[in-house]
Amino acid sequence: METNTFLAQLQDRVQQIKATAQAEFLSLEPAALNFKPQPNSWSILECLEHLNRYSRFYLPAFEKAIAPALASGSAQLVKYSWFGKKSLEMVNPAGAKKHKTLARMNPQNSQLTKAVLDEFLQHQDTLLHLLSKATTADLNKKTVPVEFFQLLKLRLGEALEFVVLHEQRHLQQALRVKASAGQPLSLVV
């Protein structure tokens, strides 16, 4: 896919993530945001805190990769490495397979407040800004370290898509938690 189309699609997804989080979670009381369907499952806020922990790592890494970028002369296709394809497959929201998260990224049993939701929404604004700046970067040559093992690197385009898919996956999880609590789901258009 051509770079500008790829980035525009990611921006659309992030806009949808933000709109859904605002519509579904902003009006909820703290008890609903902290409700867990099962003792071992995550609450809505734990799902969002997990994503915040990833954003605290990846957003500065994206900024660093994008900042020195010079505009490329021609439209390029976004390319994927074997590792990039596997990483995207792992976080694909359509995938049913569960994956164990690293202890430092697992917010289970944390004492969380609505500030988690506010931070999540701020991260979405930052990500949208970075996606608009990324049009000047070579998404295939710039790399971003992988959070769990920083010697491994993803191409910038792969890493951007990884974060967005990961957010979609856990937003769906948070919506399932809301539905299991008997909270009505809003229609977001």
What share of residues are in beta strands? 5-15%
CATH class, anyone?
A: Mainly Alpha
Number of domains: 1
Mean pLDDT: 85
Record field, number of beta strands: 2
Give the H and E element order: HHHHHEEH
List low-confidence stretches. none
Major sheet size, sense and barrel closure: 2 strands, antiparallel
CATH topology: Four Helix Bundle (Hemerythrin (Met), subunit A)
What spatial form do the alpha-carbon principal axes imply?
globular
Q: What is the rounded Rg? A: 17 Å
Number of helices in the DSSP assignment: 6
Helicity level, as a percent range? 55-70%
Strand order of the largest sheet: 1-2
The rounded distance between the terminal residues' Cα atoms is 25 Å
What structural class do you assign from the helix and strand content? mainly alpha
Under CATH, the homologous superfamily reads dinb family like domain
CATH architecture: Up-down Bundle
Protein name: DinB family protein
Domain DinB-like: 25-174
Organism: Nibribacter koreensis
Pfam families: DinB_2 (PF12867)
Short structural description:
This protein has 189 residues and is mostly helical.
Q: What is this structure's SSE topology?
A:
Blueprint: H1 3-25, H2 30-33, H3 44-66, H4 82-91, H5 115-133, E1 143-146, E2 149-155, H6 156-180
Antiparallel strand pairs: 1-2
Helix pairs in contact: 1-5, 1-6, 3-5, 3-6, 4-6
